[in-house]
TrEMBL record:
Protein name: YfhO family protein
Superkingdom assignment: Bacteria
The entry's keywords: Membrane, Transmembrane, Transmembrane helix
Organism per entry: Lactiplantibacillus pentosus
Pfam families (UniProt xref): YfhO
PANTHER family per the UniProt record, alphabetical: INTEGRAL MEMBRANE PROTEIN, INTEGRAL MEMBRANE PROTEIN-RELATED
Transmembrane annotation, as ranges: 12-31, 82-100, 107-129, 135-153, 160-179, 199-215, 236-257, 298-315, 322-343, 355-373, 385-405, 411-432, 439-460, 853-874
């Protein structure tokens, strides 16, 4: 009986609304051979370069290391994690990943993706049925148009946002109930869920809720007094939602101040971003491709059945003119937001998106389908004058797109013709008289499902994906190498490597590394990494250019290096899934460990690593290091020698090349800062810089930000330089070590007619002096006796006055220190790291991380939840007494 009630005449539209979009997407993914149904995977762009590793971190944290909930040393050299969880990992769907370890996580991603499509349809169907807007077969008709909207298809690779499409209808249902029943709890509750699930998309839902309230105020207008009452309840509901999610929002807000908020726009341009007519092209099916990801127009394609229904909303007499006017104003505001810079910035919280523009276009899709569903609440046949109006608008749209098709490269003539056919069939269907309502509703569903399926295929066929084999082999190779180190490594240590699949490899394999990529990345780390010659960007660092100095300072105790394949065939396959991104001749100075190596990776032990903390001169607390001027090698020397209190001893020296050969390039006498020009513009220009080391010391060449692979190709002794391709500051390339008497040739092949040798200098590291400084700094280590991601305890013996415990833990107000059981204030040194002042003698030092504002936010949430529950209990008792 219970099962029958579960599948009865009231619930079957909900089930179809869930299963139809899910099966359509499953069928398409099977057709594309996505794992587990083939050799491909859903991994592409950010999903393959960022999210998949964070999902692996999510799994490891919940199953193996809960201490990483608030802080993780897998996030570069250490970073807070509340912001990462709030933006990337709070979706309840992520629990599915617990059942998919290692390379099988791609199967989990497949399941989660299709489920999100299904729940988007179910959620919209729930809104339609609970508001009595639609019933029967038209429920899945509109729900399918919503679940497979253009925004959903274009952003499925940003699957962290997809929950929003399932939660938005429930927030709107809460608003509808606020107007019809006066109850706030549904709106507040679902808005709180939205803010907890993803605060970023939740912010957009809040803005849209404000617009929707204006529409609802006219739709449910009674009198001015009632409107004020509704406004106050709406405001109260929003505040209650914020309070219920304060436990997460407050620490996240603090994290954003340290990271994303650092890049807010300071100047607004009051202008249109592009010609608004280009938006019309997005009503054509399949108008999404790779080029639309970094920049383009908003993706809001929905079935033409829903578009015509949306137009019908403004043509039907059953809606009051005030309601139509408010709906038109909301529509106009959203459309203007798609092309007017100040409004675009408003929706994106004062930051232009890095890729994936107009991320809020899902609200327009919802708006179109929701108004359309209301317009066809009583019948799906339209009058002749309404059909002619729709025809005129459609002809105008398609004519505009056709006449300007060369200006919208994402529109093909084939897709334009297909869309015209779909629109024509839909319009003819709507004008036909319909006596048997059931049959025509089923036809409408088939029409919409076909329309949206065509858009799925036409859009996603433009996108390429990472093969399952490539991802699986790399993941297995990395996991095996890391697990060997973990089985033998003791205490706290960091691991570096010369190869990279993504900057979040440390999170995927759960080790302490130095790379990272996320939107909630504290700015102090990219700033520091950029200053010492590592590739960095807003929200990203790649530790690919470490010198012996930085390897020592940052406690890179182990290094993983890709083994050279034994055959050419192996090398071809190997290169595709283990890409080398670092040239590191210094590995010859480290200890090769056969015990820790695997069949794919050779592991080295660094004897000069200083540990996570060590005694250092307190002069470091007063050292001011410029972020923008000076050379990264010189900056490394200054920091290291100040720590060792050996500022009078030089570690580095600038060296001259023995010979410079210019081929089809005009000769220059001074290299650093010179601009090289080709002699014959039609031929290749090359320069070869030769030197013969007189010692076995380490040699580095610095390359300015202009010297990237887009401007030139680089070679060492005829072999292509292995280097992470993008960087915005000067980097240091390790070109020689233990090469005494061997000629080293650094070649540059120009790709353009001229080339600026920005910050191009050859340096030699005095390895003997470096080892002396390293040995001095290793004399008084912080001997860690217990450590987790958020609490570290150890002893240290300060042998001299004027010393501090220097750590390479990134500074944060969340770190709290106790020395011999007493609280001590920490210091921020080099504008990057935590240091603890200590007196001479032996001390026990404990560092504990507590996310700032987590306690405050939790108190606010607790009080709000208890107060809300208490209010309902009191009201119920009063009601019972009254009865």
């Amino acid at each position: 009986m219970k099962l029958r009630r579960f599948f009865d005449k009231r619930t079957w539209p909900l089930w179809i609304s869930f299963w139809l979009p899910l099966l359509i997407m499953t069928g398409y993914f099977i057709y594309r051979h996505m794992a587990p149904f083939g050799s491909s995977s859903l991994l592409t762009v950010d999903l393959g370069q960022q999210y998949v590793d964070l999902f692996a971190y999510f799994r490891h944290t919940l199953l193996h290391d809960p201490s990483a909930l608030f802080y993780s040393f897998s996030k570069t050299i250490g970073g807070e994690m509340v912001g990462v969880w709030a933006y990337y990992l709070m979706s309840p769907f992520n629990l599915i990943y617990l059942f998919f370890p290692g390379q099988s996580i791609t199967t989990g991603i497949f399941i989660v993706t299709v489920l999100k499509y299904g729940f988007a349809g179910l959620s919209f169907a729930w809104l339609l049925t609970k508001t009595h807007t639609q019933k029967g077969w038209l429920v899945p008709t509109f729900s399918t148009a919503y679940a497979l909207m253009g925004w959903m298809v274009a952003n499925q690779l940003n699957m962290i946002w997809l929950d929003t499409v399932a939660i938005l209808p429930l927030v709107i249902l809460g608003l509808e109930r606020l107007f019809t029943t006066g109850k706030v709890r549904y709106f507040a509750g679902w808005l709180a869920v939205m803010l907890i699930d993803n605060y970023y998309m939740g912010y957009m839902v809040v803005l849209f809720s404000c617009l929707y309230w204006l529409y609802g105020a006219t739709k449910y207008w009674q009198d001015f007094k009632t409107m004020i009452k509704h406004a106050l309840k709406f405001a109260w509901g929003g505040l209650l939602a914020a309070a219920l999610s304060a436990w997460l929002l407050l620490p996240t807000f603090w994290a954003l101040i340290q990271s994303k908020a650092q890049y807010n726009e300071t100047k607004i341009h009051w202008k249109l971003e592009y010609a608004p007519w280009k938006m019309l092209a997005k009503f054509v099916t399949g108008t999404f491709n790779f080029d639309q990801m970094p920049s383009g127009q908003p993706n809001f394609y929905v079935a033409w059945f829903a578009i015509f229904a949306f137009i019908l909303f403004f043509l039907r007499r059953r809606f009051k003119w005030t309601v139509k006017l408010s709906a038109l104003l909301v529509t106009g505001f959203i459309l203007l937001s798609f092309c007017y810079e100040p409004l675009d910035l408003l929706w994106h919280a004062d930051q232009f998106p890095v890729w994936y523009p107009y991320r809020f276009s899902f609200v327009f899709c919802f708006w179109i389908v929701w108004l359309g569903a209301q317009a066809m609440a009583d019948k799906i046949t339209i009058k002749l004058w309404q059909a002619l109006t729709m025809l005129a608008l459609t002809v105008g749209l398609f004519t505009t797109v056709y006449l300007n098709i060369k200006k919208v490269s994402y529109v093909t003539q084939a897709n334009l013709l297909i869309t015209i056919a779909l629109a024509a069939l839909t319009l003819i269907f709507l004008t036909l008289p319909k006596q048997r309502r059931l049959i025509y509703q089923i036809v409408a569903l088939i029409l919409v499902a076909t329309d949206m399926s065509i858009n799925v295929v036409a859009s996603l066929n433009n996108i390429s994906y990472v093969s399952q084999s490539e991802f699986g082999k790399y993941t297995t190779a990395l996991d095996n190498a890391v697990n060997k180190i973990k089985a033998n490594g003791k205490g706290f240590y960091r691991i570096g490597k010369t190869f990279t699949r993504t900057k979040d490899d440390p999170m995927q394999a759960a080790y302490n590394g130095a790379d990272h990529f996320s939107s909630t990345f504290e700015s102090i780390i990219p700033n520091f990494f950029g200053s010492i010659g590592q590739p960095d960007g807003d929200g990203v660092v790649a530790y690919t250019n470490g010198t012996m100095i930085t390897d020592s300072l940052l406690d890179m105790q182990y290094f993983m290096d890709k083994k050279v394949p034994t055959s050419q065939n192996d090398n071809t396959n190997y290169r595709s899934y283990i890409p080398v991104t670092s040239t590191k001749k210094d590995l010859t100075n480290y200890q090769k460990s056969n015990k820790l190596s695997t069949s794919k990776v050779t592991t080295y032990k660094n004897p000069y690593a200083l540990g996570l903390g060590f005694a250092a001169s307190d002069k470091i607390t007063k050292l001011k290091v410029s972020k923008t001027t000076g050379d990264p090698i010189a900056r490394q020397e200054l920091i290291y020698q100040t720590l060792a209190n050996r500022s009078t001893s030089s570690l580095i020296s600038a060296e001259n090349f023995n010979e410079v050969v210019f081929q089809n390039v005009k000769k220059v006498t001074t290299l650093t800062g010179a601009v090289l020009n080709k002699e014959n513009l039609s031929k290749t220009g090359s320069i070869y810089f030769k030197f013969t080391p007189t010692t076995n010391d380490s040699y580095y060449i610095t390359l300015g930000a202009n010297l990237t692979t887009s401007n030139a190709s680089f070679y060492i002794n005829g072999k292509e330089l292995k280097q992470y391709p993008t960087y915005r500051h000067t980097i240091a390339v390790n070109v020689a070590s233990n090469s005494k008497g061997k000629t080293v040739t650094f070649g540059i092949q120009m790709k353009k007619t001229s080339l600026w040798l920005q910050n191009f200098t050859l340096y030699k590291l005095d390895n003997s002096q470096f080892k002396t400084s390293a040995k001095k700094l290793q004399q008084a280590p912080w001997n860690i006796s217990a450590h987790s991601n958020r609490k570290i305890t150890g002893t240290i013996n300060i042998k001299h006055n004027h010393q501090v415990l220097m750590t390479t833990i990134p500074y944060s107000k969340g770190w709290h220190a106790t020395v011999d059981g007493k609280s001590v204030a920490t210091k921020k040194v080099i504008n990057t790291f935590v240091a603890v002042p200590l007196s001479k003698g032996k001390h026990t030092v404990t560092l504990t991380y507590r996310p700032p504002f987590l306690v405050t936010g939790s108190i606010i949430t607790g009080v709000s939840a208890i107060g809300t529950i208490g209010w309902f209990v009191i009201r119920r008792r009063r009601r019972n007494h009254a009865n």
